[in-house]
Design goal:
With 94 residues, the protein is mainly alpha-helical. The chain has a domain of 58 residues. 61% of the residues lie in helices and 0% in strands. It has four helices and no strands.
Amino acid sequence: MTYRDSLDALAAALPKLGAKDADFANSLLAQAQNHATMHGYPPLSGKQWYWVRKLAEKANATAPAATNVGDFSAVIELFKTAGAPEIPQGQAAA
């Protein structure tokens, strides 16, 4: 993948990123654009290129499939009774 391809992939991924990641991605894209216009060679450091690729991959990653854990009603009931006062032995519940 060329430098231009990596930047294009990141630009296309912007709508899929969270706010902080999108801000960082915009910063990388702006720096790349400004530097390339002035100098015409790869505008970012190796560490910055790492993040260009990482953010593009993150935006295009698919979410893991949901796992069915079965019936949780018994666990819910356990939590409902966890804070209830104990009933002394020999007494009926009200």
